Amino acid sequence: MCGIFAYTGNKNASKILIDGLKALEYRGYDSSGIFVHGVGNIKSTGGIENLKEKIGSNFQGTTGISHLRWATHGQPTKNNAHPHTDCTEKVFIVHNGIIENYKEIKEKLISLGHKFISETDSEVISHLIEDNLKTEKDFENAVSKSLSVLNGTFGIIASYVNEPNKIIVARMGAPVVLGIGDGENFVASDPSPIIRHTKNIVYLHDGDIAIVTPDSYDIYTLDNNIINRDIEVIDWEVEQIQKDGHEHFMLKEIINCPNTVNDTLRGRLMTEEGLAKLGGLEIVADKLRDINRIIIVGCGSAYYAGLIGEYMLEEYAEIQVEVEIGSEFRYRKPIIDKNTVVLAISQSGETADTLEAIREAKRKGALTLGIVNTVGSTIARETDAGIYNHAGPEIGVASTKAFISQITALSLITIFLGRQRQMSLTMGKRIGEELLELPKKIDSILNNKEEIRKLAEKYSKYKNLLYIGRKYNYPIAFEGALKLKEVSYVHAEGYGAGEMKHGPLAMIDENFPTVAISLDDSVYKKVISNMEEIKARKGKVLAIATEGDSGIKSLADDVMYIPKTLEMLSPILSIIPLQLFAYYFALKNDCNVDKPRNLAKSVTVE
Ligand code: AGP
Questions:
Q1: Start-to-end CA span in the chain (Å)
Q2: Ligand 1 atom nearest residue 601's Cα
Q3: I need a labelling partner for 591 at 20 to 30 A (CA). Which of 73, 162, 190, 432 fits?
Q4: What stretches in the chain show pLDDT beneath 70?
């Protein structure tokens, strides 16, 4: 999820663009760049400050485009930063989104003599426009012809040296808005960099292409029919926009989970063949065919995601799996042989304990893999192969959408390795089809967030809560408890439901409620009997149950329902109400949910 911003008017474009990119920094911050007509193109790795330092005072022009990168294809390097240009350095583009068919287009353009300097998918756009400028009558037509061959998502701004006071903008699946000023106009991924200049915003729709000059903006469909889009006057503050109107990044990121699942799956499921296409693992596919053991390492939520991966990989890929917390793995003496893979899971890709665990594994000659969200991060660079989550930047310290994406990625790896082994086409197809259904099912849970808020407020006075679960939802008991601990600072403990009678049951009374994940699955009856043990000690039970299970109401004090799915995928649904429960519980206790005390988003020290 990158940030794009452009300006055309009569003021100093570079100052306006740099200030505007700051407001978009929550979208991505690993590299940035700017092109201003009549002056040139400057790119830099790192955040805005680095770019600002490079731009001298005489970087003056009145039309420019700029970009803040959240890498998806290619490391965060200067060459991979945007704006990208063509062989003649006359066409400049910035892009937010993913071009899925970029490899084929790039090969064709290279065969036509084009020279590429970056590893990105986006650079094909500037060379396509260059190519079409040779045949099309004008810049507009060269741009729309180029866009017509792209598959994937894009928010694009293009600029052409020969037409200085004009920028062309297009949207397909990635947000783009216009800011309508007086003698000046703006284009951005969202209104946050614009509203300090004008409140008149035009939201482009998928398939829209706009030609913007200082005094005009005309919107067409990609097949050249002119259309009208209303101006909406918005009175939001910048912060509100960064949070999509939600009060906190944590809530925004929970609400974003359906998109996150889609983004993690995009281009990676071949449902008809029951296969998972994971480019980042292709290079070690043969080695992976011979492995017989996987050690998953991670910390915090990433560790709990790993525990779910253990159940999936053992049951559906028939591979022996162990899961380790990074800080213990690096000081133990793990036995690693040549058929053992060590798989690191990390949102930030910078967690010191997980990184050192990977380095320890490499020293012992293990093949190391990564499931990482931050492109170009240290763990991504130091592992031999892996897959990116594509979940976009996660700002809230409590991991929510990244956790969902980690489980989704693990299910893709389960299909990938399973289909190399005994998993049937039918089973691979079934898991794939059910994965594609999950975004809708998450949406239906999010539609009940008001009920979940009421329940969270009802339980918000308790200082101790127990979370119990079994099998695939055993790790969810721990993750649910971790969410509540992190953002509301109360004592919440995750436990295997079957372990209750071996100790924790002693804690139970009417002041120590239990959250029980009791879904209609292979261990349902076992969890029910554990809930009865709690009720027998006057403990209150808040159950997470499968829609249609009315019987559980007679046992539980309160119930949060979720739709039915495959047991192996049920954690992707059962954690959603627990994330919302923790969020609203913390709000009721006036906690700072986005920046909880004593915690950091990325723990880069031991
Ligand atoms: C989870 O909500 C926490 N922020 C924390 O436990 C986190 O999962 C852990 O620090 C691992 O971070 P990583 O995924 O960036 O490696």
A1: 30
A2: 4
A3: 190
A4: 1, 236-241
